[in-house]
Write a structure and sequence with these properties.
The complex is a heterodimer. By secondary structure, chain A is an alpha/beta fold. Chain A is 52% helix and 9% strand. The chains are: A alpha/beta, B alpha+beta.
Chain lengths: 424, 468
């Protein structure tokens, strides 16, 4: 038997070494020998693309069959199970009767028309909806794991206008779930979280009830292309090598271990490695707040590099000479913006921590701040125009001055210019 | 003696599906195929940036995600008049083909095999129906051994997909305009080495196992015939001719091959949960009827070619391309699928060699303020169609018709059964308590419940606000 601390180290080590580490399975098997029986697991597919079950099939170390043979008693899994129809429903009945099982759910729960937008099975002629089934299965589950962003948060099919009125599992049940989000979730996140649940119970959960172990770190912080961001090396279109920030990368507002873990078992690549932006698929507001996928974030979301990114985009768009001017102005504005930025950061942090996106007070605050920022941005633009005008004026005045050969006059003018900029 | 059996959930497919059959004197006399999970992605796409469609439409399906990316990108390329660079087309083909081979292998071993062989009594492999096994002990052992290998090989096919796709399911590498990962020697070598292992597996395991199954269950070369009408849109990007498919399109009707006329494709909704005269409006707030005759029973519509029921998939492609010429039965479908797996895997080797390191993979473009385009392409399970209309640089209309809506459709307005329903009729069921024959016939059509349910409109009509 190994300790929780050792387990966590293994999961983290796995990143550098090899997948979720072949070390886990022998130890897991060893640990499970001390239990009287393999833990009972139900994998339930609600209204889903089944992408997470295929991600689960893609687990490499440990492999799928190792897990099935050595670690868990996976009684129900629509994709693999031999039973169908009544036999399959009987398995569920028997397991619910026994209780004490781990329920893994993927997919959203459609609630429209009394749940009839999603049918789980047929009891005789009578359709059973996902709403009914999830309540039934959830009632006796020891632990509920929501696998993938649909089950965890609603996901793509709950995006506007949410035609099936789909909700997350925790919302459907009014009960906390361990959220293993992602579209789909990485096989290591699924297997790693499951292993933790079996061996040590609930893992430490962070923002939005996701295991800190896998969702604890910001993608932008660990991104292999971070230096390109710092050095202003930006991709101009998908397929271009460089930082993908300007073509929509949501890494700065997304937390997962993708940059270090990579996909799948062989750690070949990941979306940014494929020269495409991260679309923030693990986020609670995916895909709504990630779309358009190829449009860059409002600069405010990039902690510590807010002005920079905006400046950069303009440099890229507007040519160097103008860019330098803006840079100068941006530096002036930064002092003033700084306080407001701090406030936004605090509120965003609070919102994330409380996990409550529907807190209207905070939202209103954010809206207010964003409005204020817009005003400041506009001022920045105005300043830019003024600077241009001033430069033009100065140029013509310098010409005049040259003609008049009067030194004192030109000195006054530059003083005046300085005063105006400082005022702003 | 008449008996009705409901099978819900109909497991070992992708996503959820439900079936109902009527058995008289141990023969199936009627069947109902039900897609009952509605998500409405087309509605969600409305008003979005068209470039997002290849990513968002992939979320329809976990097992064939790259297929939606591919056809969605084709529809946009058609709308924006883009030419995909040769390298880009090849990489798109490679990503999609790895997914196809992965899907076919998983389908054969994970979905089909348990209908013929009892797997070891290990959860989730129990209980299962009781039936007599016909394969020899040795043959069975080999197939069970290959079941294990199939798990590894299909996993490594997804690893291959990741090389050019970044992640899977729902890869990032297929976009309108081309691919995003420039090939280099390292990637080509890694891809190639995993591909050669997959090819050996197909040659040494999948093909002999398919043959063994066919030899042991010869009656399935007669059972499970549907309407004997086949259709294919053609498959893979032609790297040399932009917006053309590498494999030809075509139909098989009355035993003869004809050209396909896409204008004949239509959708009917009398037996679907949509109001009949206004076929775009989902029925709201009413309880789902419990299989009364003449009442709607599915969320999917009935796509038809002209007035007739057509089926699609590997069998249709193989027969249209004159690679296979036997019959239209359940076992023919399974055999054609395995043959295609081998052919595609070998084709991939060729594409890999044609990749040119350093040459472009992607064409950048500006979204025009308005455009209209269509993508018609065969994917794993058959012909997939995406249509897009762009106004003010936003998607104003999106329509998807997937293979499973064709193959597993409910009855049409004329009351004709869908292909799966028709295939089931006439199938003998030895023991109605253990109706394993239903699965043997149905799974040959490779049902995909995730893909099926879409509220695609009848041609020419667009979605309106009344849907909500």
């Amino acid at each position: 038997m190994f300790t929780r601390r050792q387990f966590i180290q293994l999961c983290l080590k796995g990143v550098a070494a090899y997948s979720l580490s072949p070390l886990i399975i022998p130890r897991l098997a060893e640990a499970l020998e001390n239990l009287n029986k393999k833990p009972v697991v139900l994998w339930y597919e609600a209204n889903t693309c089944a992408g997470n079950v295929f991600s689960f099939l893609n687990t490499l170390n440990p492999s799928l069959l190792e897990i099935l043979e050595k670690s868990i008693d996976l009684r129900f899994n629509n994709t693999l199970m031999t039973a169908e129809g009544e036999q399959a429903l009987n398995i569920l009945d028997k397991t619910v009767e026994e209780g004490e099982y781990i329920l893994m759910v993927e997919g959203t729960i459609p609630t429209r028309a009394g749940g009839h937008y999603g049918i789980a099975g047929l009891r005789g002629d009578k359709p059973v909806t996902h709403v009914e089934m999830i309540e039934y299965l959830g009632s006796k589950a020891k632990t509920i794991m929501a696998i993938g962003s649909c089950a965890a948060f609603g996901g793509p099919f709950a995006a506007y206008p949410n035609p099936s009125h789909s909700v997350s599992v925790s919302k459907a049940l009014g009960r906390e779930t361990i959220n293993v989000s992602g579209c789909p979730a990485h096989p290591d996140w699924i297997v790693g979280t499951l292993s933790h649940v079996i061996l040590f119970g609930k893992p430490e959960l962070g923002v939005h009830n996701r295991p800190v172990l896998f969702y604890g770190e910001n993608i932008h912080h660990r991104c292999p292309r971070r230096q390109m961001f710092e050095d202003n090396v930006f991709a101009k279109h998908p397929g271009d090598e460089g930082c993908l920030y300007l073509i929509g990368c949501k890494g700065p507002v997304t937390s997962s271990d993708c940059p270090t873990r990579q996909w799948i078992g062989l750690h070949n690549s990941w979306p940014i490695g494929a020269n495409t932006p991260c679309i923030g698929c693990v986020n609670a507001d995916f895909p709504e707040k990630s779309m358009p996928f190829f449009k860059h974030l409002p600069d405010i979301n990039v902690t510590g590099a807010n002005i920079k990114a905006r400046t950069i985009s303009k440099v890229v768009a507007g040519g160097t000479a103008l860019g330098i001017g803006i840079h100068f102005l941006a530096n002036l504005a930064r002092g003033r913006l700084k306080l407001r930025l701090k406030a936004v950061e605090d509120i965003t942090k609070k919102t994330q921590e409380s996990g409550d996106l529907e807190d209207h007070q905070q939202e209103d605050d954010l809206v207010e701040i964003f409005e204020e920022l817009d005003v400041l941005t506009k001022k920045e633009e105005d300043l830019k125009k003024k600077l241009k005008q001033l430069l033009r004026k100065r140029k013509s005045r310098l010409k005049k001055a040259k003609k008049l050969k009067s030194k004192s006059k030109s000195k006054n003018k530059s003083k005046k210019e300085k005063e105006i900029t400082e005022d702003e | 003696m008449s008996k009705k059996i409901s099978i819900g959930p109909f497991t070992r497919i992708n996503g959820l599906w439900h079936l109902k059959v009527e058995i008289n004197d141990n023969v199936i006399t009627d069947a109902w195929s039900m897609g009952t999970n509605f998500r409405g992605l087309e509605l969600i796409l409305k008003g979005r940036d068209p470039r997002d469609a290849p990513y968002l439409t992939q979320r329809i399906c976990g097992i064939c995600s790259s297929a939606h990316a591919l056809v969605s990108s084709r529809a946009l390329e058609n709308a924006f008049n883009l030419e995909v660079p040769r390298n880009g087309a090849l990489i798109k083909n490679l990503i999609f083909a790895s997914d196809l081979v992965q899907g076919h292998i998983r389908h054969f071993y994970f979905f089909v095999i348990p209908d013929y062989i009892h797997l070891p009594e290990n959860e989730p492999f129990k209980p299962s129906y009781v039936f007599n096994e016909r394969l020899s002990a040795k043959g069975k052992e080999r197939i069970l051994n290959n079941y294990r290998k199939a798990a590894e090989i299909s996993q490594s096919l997804h690893e291959m997909l990741v090389i050019f796709g970044g992640k899977t399911p729902h890869n990032h590498g297929i976009l309108a305009g081309g691919a995003t990962v420039p090939p280099d020697a390292d990637k080509i070598r890694l891809f190639g080495s995993m591909l050669s292992k997959a090819i050996s597996f197909i040659e040494e395991a999948l093909m002999p196992d398919t043959e063994a199954l066919g030899e042991a269950y010869t009656e399935y070369f007669q059972l499970g015939e549907a309407h004997k009408n086949l259709i294919t849109f053609g498959m893979f990007f032609d790297p040399d001719i932009p917006q053309e498919n590498l494999y030809p399109s075509g139909i098989i009707r009355n035993g003869g091959r004809e050209d396909m006329d896409k204008d004949l494709i239509n959708e009917q909704a009398r037996y679907s949960f949509y109001e009949n005269d206004e076929p775009l409006r989902p029925l709201e707030g009413k309880t789902i009827p419990e299989f009364q005759e003449g009442k709607p029973y599915s969320w999917i519509k009935a796509p038809r070619y002209g007035k007739d029921v057509y089926e699609m998939g590997p069998l249709a492609r193989q027969i249209v391309r004159k690679k296979y010429n036997k019959s239209f039965s359940a076992m023919d479908r399974i055999t054609a699928r395995s043959l295609e797996t081998l052919e595609v895997a070998r084709e991939m080797e060729g594409w890999l060699k044609e990749l040119e390191p350093g040459a472009p993979v992607y064409t950048d473009f500006e979204i025009p303020s308005s455009a209209e385009g269509e993508g018609y392409l065969d994917v794993m399970r058959g012909a997939l169609q995406h249509s897009v209309r762009v106004s003010n640089k936003k998607i104003s209309h999106y329509q998807i018709v997937t293979p499973t809506t064709w193959n597993c459709s409910p009855r049409d307005n004329e009351g004709q059964r869908g292909a799966l329903e028709e295939a089931l009729v006439g199938t003998p069921v030895e023991d109605p308590e253990n109706p394993v024959e239903i699965g043997r016939v149905s799974r040959s059509l490779d049902v995909c419940g995730s893909c099926a349910v879409h509220i695609a409109g009848v041609k020419g009509l667009s979605f309106s606000q009344k849907i909500i």
